Amino acid sequence: MTGIRAQNPIFTGMCILFGWLMWLPNTHGQTELEGLTFKDALQASIEAAGSGDLQTAASLFQSLELTFGAEDEYLEEEVQRRILPLKGLAELGAGQFQRAADTLDSLEDSYPQALEQNAPLLYGWARAHKGAGSNSNARDALDRYMNQVAGTTEAFLANLEKADLFFADDMLEEGLAELDAFSNSSAPHSLKMQGQLKAIHAHLNEGQMDQAAARMLNNTWSITTMPELAQLAFSALSCGEYSMSAGRYQAALKLFQLVPPKSQLVRLQKEKLDDLKLRILSGRRRALLATNRHQQQYLSRLEQQLTQQLEALESSEDYTPTFYLHYGQCLLFDGQLYKAWLMFEYISLQEAYPTSIREEAHYRWVICAHQLQDWEEALTIARNFVERYPDSKLAPQALYLIAKAHLEQRRYPESIEVLNDLIQSFPDHPLHGRLN
Questions:
Q1: Please, are residues 204 and 235 in contact by the beta-carbon 8 Å criterion?
Q2: Are 70 and 104 in contact (CB under 8 A)?
Q3: Which sign, positive or negative, has the C-alpha torsion 397, 398, 404, 408?
Q4: What is d(CA 174, CA 135) in angstroms, rounded to the nearest whole number?
Q5: pTM, whole model, 2 decimals?
Q6: 356-371 pLDDT tens trace
Q7: How many Cα atoms within 13 Å fall on the side-chain side of residue 184?
Q8: Distance between CA atoms of 52 and 143, rounded to whole angstroms?
Q9: d(Cα 364, Cα 307) in Å, to the nearest integer?
Q10: Could you tell me which of 352, 272, 258, 354 has the C-alpha nearest to residue 310?
Q11: Which of 165, 153, 68 is nearest to 119 (CA)?
Q12: Thinking of the domain 328-433, which architecture would CATH place it in?
């Protein structure tokens, strides 16, 4: 294999530059081998691959096999060791995953050392099997690839891909075990957090809310280093609402702190996406010399994911009003009355928010004033509520709280007057008998 590399620098180029060939503009070269000698046909196939026209290269390598496959010069060991890697990578780049997998399987069967000693080929082999739907074979290839590049960013990214392949095969426990081992590795913290976010997403997909919430709470998250801010925010929101419904208010509050308002989340996600695009562009410029082929492919897939998430976020309904309301309710239930007061007051004064949200917040604002025994404020806030929402289903409760505030201040005639109003306006409501 060493001799072939020395004699054929294009072979070395294909193996080293495979990660960036797909970024080059397509050039349409010769697509047929009719009338060419084997040597010229092979050269035409290699040149097509080197130009980045992988569709043409794949077609030419396949024509080469059909035309010369039975001839001794094609079947020579040194020639096969040279052709199979190039053909497999060209087919992979052309999106012909099953053909690529078959070609690289043939390389493994006949010349295992060619794969074992070439990390880009191993990774290409894994991608081919993944694209062909053979996730088990893809995981095996990734294991061998990680052994070749152990301790590098490429190896850490392959760990995350392997976990995804477990989840794709509904092997939840195996995928979670992969990510738990990854979290104890020497990988960068940002990648570990991406791994944990994958685990949380897997739990949520399976309806395992307790496990998802536990992972959210047991990790330290950073919006400054994580690119998947939207996924983090919505995972925290789902887990926070679940914790709130289960009466775990402090846990819910901790989770809610990871959720920015929609406008801020959109802005932050755009900034992350812009930063990512700059990293990709910088990596492409260094492609001839860099060893970041795998990183570039990973970043490009991440860019696609973030773009889709951002588009979905921008087109979705604003979750902020409901989120703020739930946040305030958690503060109230947790006994943080002053903070809850401020939250409910803020929501109730936002004219752009839905009326139902402002109405509920205004009533909760009254509750906060009552529990703080600020009777004058409670009276004022409750009266304003009745004036703004006279037909609200919460109006009887508001009248009751006004009556109780008067009673606490020993303003008995005023209390009786409000109670009479409650009885007359809502004769069948159970509240008017509470002060008897």
A1: yes
A2: no
A3: positive
A4: 13
A5: 0.80
A6: 999 999 999 999 998 8
A7: 5
A8: 28
A9: 38
A10: 272
A11: 153
A12: Alpha Horseshoe (1.25)
